[in-house]
Amino acid sequence: MSRALDLDEQVDDLVLLLDLVRHGRARTRPELARRSGLGRTVVSARLTRLLDADLVVEGELGPSTGGRAPRELRFRAEAGAVLVAEVGATGFAVGVTDLGGALREHRHRAWDVSAGPEATLDRIADDLEDLRGDVGDVAPIWGLGLGLPGPVEFASGRPVAPPIMPGWDGHPVREHLAGRFGVPVWVDNEVNTMALGELRHGVARGVSDLLYVKIGTGIGAGLVTGGRLHRGAQGAAGDLGHTAVHEDSGIVCRCGNRGCLEVLAGGGALARDAVTVARGGHSGRLAARLADAGELTARDVVEAAREGDQESRRMLEHAGVLIGTTLSVAVNLVNPAMVLLGGQVGASSDQVLAAVREIVYRRSLPLATRELRIEPSPLSGRAGLIGAATMVVDELLSPARLVRWLQDGSPVGRADLT
Amino acid sequence: MSRALDLDEQVDDLVLLLDLVRHGRARTRPELARRSGLGRTVVSARLTRLLDADLVVEGELGPSTGGRAPRELRFRAEAGAVLVAEVGATGFAVGVTDLGGALREHRHRAWDVSAGPEATLDRIADDLEDLRGDVGDVAPIWGLGLGLPGPVEFASGRPVAPPIMPGWDGHPVREHLAGRFGVPVWVDNEVNTMALGELRHGVARGVSDLLYVKIGTGIGAGLVTGGRLHRGAQGAAGDLGHTAVHEDSGIVCRCGNRGCLEVLAGGGALARDAVTVARGGHSGRLAARLADAGELTARDVVEAAREGDQESRRMLEHAGVLIGTTLSVAVNLVNPAMVLLGGQVGASSDQVLAAVREIVYRRSLPLATRELRIEPSPLSGRAGLIGAATMVVDELLSPARLVRWLQDGSPVGRADLT
Q1: Name one GO molecular function term (chains A, B) (predicted).
Q2: Contact A234/B371, CB-based, under 8 Å?
């Protein structure tokens, strides 16, 4: 009892020290004291707890450089494993990571999310089981993280009125998966997990204000303010895809409205327009591809553009202009230090990147773009899985969970097993 | 020395307890213990320090309701005073508040901000001196807060490339005023201080995600995410006024670009269009007013609309539609719980409010608007002054300053007096 109380009082220090080691911002005891602002005695006492719990390990003495060489501290990322999955409109990926977010193995499966939550989650769970079996000597699984292509109420892990996921509204996703694996589960919008992946393990490390824009079949954004994911009042933040850009457009979006950015400039729109172009005889390359495959995708347009197809380049530039116009409002409002373009189209089309850059640099406030970097997301395809793992580990190492971990030797409690 | 070290270790608790009392979230010792998560013994020990420093007072015993009645705790807002000023494009306001942000006295002066920093800041300082003299028995002045109509680098208190303030770029505003009054000075964009005023003392209390839109001569926004002001990577966040809405418009904005939202829908645009309408014989009311006064302002348009003038109503509706269209992107991106319209036009035009509501509710994602409140800012004219005081007190009660306060009996150090 007194030990538990004692832990409660120390837990903020413990979380702080663990974060410093985990994110590589402090590698020795003196660095920990300096960065945390805690006294050396306090650092030593707290560190003993983290060493006892095998969350941190202390290495050998380094070579002396005059004075006593400090031992190197390291977060024991191999102490546990995390199962992760990322669902898009036309497929999902599953993976296994360590506690540091490093992907040990991952796989992709073509899948239609409109198959509904039961079938989709069961398929994901089966694939995760298979993957876990194939990976073999895996550490204890301590959590599961899932990204979904729509708004999610983060506290409950339930989708909220997702425009492109019929049947998923309010589905108890967390309970469904927690019951199967007996570990705690966290669920978020997949663009949020992608942003988190780049923020914590990618090119956006150390960036405080980030706008991550996924341009795949649909268009969505993940917003980071002050170093933290901004989810908004209903978990709907980042929904740039359903901004109305041409209300007089006759094209109806999956969300039911007309003229949304996504239905005019997303991957679905590119595929649709590509078929028209191919059938109209305006692009030999696209026509040949359509004849071969029986359909065209946004990826076909990006590849044809790379090979020099003028119509494909024009389509991608047009999409980039529409996306850039909406992003210029976002840049003025948020003044991010970095905009990352991810997703099949965003991360790989030079035309989209160039058009977005041109529009945003021209139309946003000079001060807001003076040091703004607009770049493709280097992690793109893996950012969502890595971010989902990060989300899980952040939650596992939150104060309440960490107290349980240090008391019971595991972060998983009885409440997680239902 | 040991007492100072001791203070350093306790200061996070002290800030937490003081915030709970100051914001009315805890009024008794048991409430403090419950809300802070600290033990009762710790609460009592820390509270003694705050009582000794006269920052908190403990009232008489209340009537017993069975058991011992707890004494009521109160933040001693009267312990110090704060000088505040808010600069707009066409005038500034000065005021004196207590530490709770309550305005004791305030005044407005018509003034052209393009007169430059030296003349403007000297005039403000003179008016603050006069006001302080007139108020009389004022507590010690412990800080000065200033809102400016442009981007400000908060850490240095310097304007950064402000579009409508020629000569102010990089001016050492803080040093200028600190030298005159011998107190610490904090400077921010005036829309940020307005947002802070409503967030902490107005209708947005308890709101975590807020978008405050000032529609005066210009148009600007203050963004609150996760309960904190979001200033962005260069302090330029919230600049919706210079979003391009009609690039093919021939009208050049004060910022140098064409077709900005502000130059088409701000108060300056309304005044300009009102003159055209009056001269063209389309509005007897506006023509009469123009003949009387020799000029027309946005306020004239708002008043004429209230009296039934159709052309004025049409102009305000048009402005509202343009503003609403830009805001719908902001609402989709941020998913705020509340949008407040402030400024001379924003807080008082029914037509602008109605048009903004209609456009945002129609064009933003249903989930993002399901519980969204769009309202005029009730504090509007005073929100900036109250927010500036709040900014100052927040900084004075930050850990480093609080340590000094408790040691020296004053939050003002030698470094502030230059």
Answers
A1: kinase activity
A2: yes
Residue A414: band (very low, low, confident or very high) from pLDDT cuts 50, 70, 90? low
* Residue B65 clears pLDDT 80, i.e. is over it: no
A211 shares its domain with A357? yes
Task: Please name the member of B232, B255, B368 whose beta carbon is closest to the beta carbon of A234.
Answer: B368
The reply to whether A175 and A312 lie within a common domain is no
Residue B383 pLDDT > 90, yes or no? yes
Residue A117 φ then ψ, to 5°: -70, -40
Judge whether A268 lies within some domain.
Answer: yes
Q: From the candidates B333, B360, B370, B398, which should be mutated to test the interface with A, based on the most A CB atoms within 10 A? A: B333
Residue in chain B closest to A359 (alpha carbons) equals B244
CATH number of A366's domain = 3.30.420.40
Instruction: Choose the mutation target among A41, A335, A370, A374 for the interface with B, i.e. most B CBs under 10 Å.
Output: A335
Domain containing residue B29: CATH number? 1.10.10.10
- Å between B144 CA and nearest CA of chain A: 26
Q: Are residues B280 and B187 in the same domain?
A: no
B168-177: long-range pairs with CB below 8 Å, 24+: B168/B113, B168/B116, B168/B117, B171/B117, B173/B117, B173/B121, B173/B146, B173/B148, B175/B418, B176/B117, B176/B118, B176/B121, B177/B121, B177/B124, B177/B125, B177/B144, B177/B146
Average pLDDT, chain B: 90
pLDDT tens string B247-266 = 677 788 877 778 889 999 99
**Number of neighbouring beta carbons within 10 Å of residue B330:** 26
Domain-terminating residue out of B35, B58, B75: B75
- Chain A hits for B151, CB-CB cut-off 8 Å, are 367
Give the best residue of A253, A332, A363, A371 to mutate against chain B (max B CB count within 10 A). A332
> Residue A213: closest CA among chain B residues belongs to which residue?
B333
- State pLDDT tens for residues A239-273: 899 888 876 777 888 777 788 899 999 999 999 99
| Phi/psi-derived region of residue B171, left when phi > 0, alpha when psi is between -120 and 50, beta in every other case | beta
Q: For residues B6 and B26, what is the distance between their CA atoms, to the nearest angstrom?
A: 25
Whether A415 is in a domain gets the answer no
Residue from B327, B335, B361 whose CB has the most chain A CBs within 10 Å, to mutate: B335
Of A5, A232, A335, the CB nearest to B234: A335
In chain A, pLDDT over 90 holds for what percent of residues?
A: 67
CB contact under 8 Å between B39 and A5, yes or no, is yes
Size of interface A-B (CB pairs under 8 A): 148
Per the structure, the count of domains in chain B is 3
Is A311 part of a structural domain of the chain? yes
Give me the residue from B221, B225, B235 closest to A225, CB to CB: B225
Give me the pLDDT at residue B109, please: 96
The range of the structural domain enclosing residue A329 comes to 205-378
Helix (H) or strand (E) run with residue A72 in it: strand A71-75
Are residues A343 and A246 part of one domain?
Answer: yes
Residues B51 and B90 in one domain: no
pLDDT digits (tens, 9 = 90+) for A9-67: 788 889 999 999 998 889 999 999 998 888 888 899 999 999 988 899 988 765 555 56
Whole-number pLDDT of residue A62: 56
Q: What is the mean pLDDT of chain A?
A: 90
Which of B9, B230, B365 is facing A225, going by the closest CB pair?
B230
Q: Which helix (H) or strand (E) holds B190?
A: helix B190-201
Predicted confidence band of residue B366 (pLDDT cuts 50, 70, 90)? confident
Using a CB-CB distance cutoff of 8 angstroms, which residues of chain A are in contact with residue B255? 365
Domain boundary among A75, A95, A114: A75
B343 and B218, same domain (yes or no): yes
Is the pLDDT at B213 greater than 80, yes or no? yes
Mean pLDDT of B4-9: 66
The answer to whether the CB atoms of B367 and A330 lie below 8 A apart is no
The answer to whether residues A370 and A386 belong to one domain is: no
Average pLDDT (B28-32) is 91
How is A317-334 classified by DSSP, letter by letter? HHHHHHHHHHHHHHHHHH
The answer to whether residue A157 is domain-embedded is yes
How many other C-beta atoms lie within 10 A of the C-beta of residue A199?
Answer: 26
Kindly provide the ipTM of the predicted complex, given to two decimals. 0.88
Residues A320 and A180 grouped into a single domain: no
Report the percentage of chain B scoring pLDDT > 70: 95
- Partner residue facing A371 (CB), from B37, B233, B240: B233
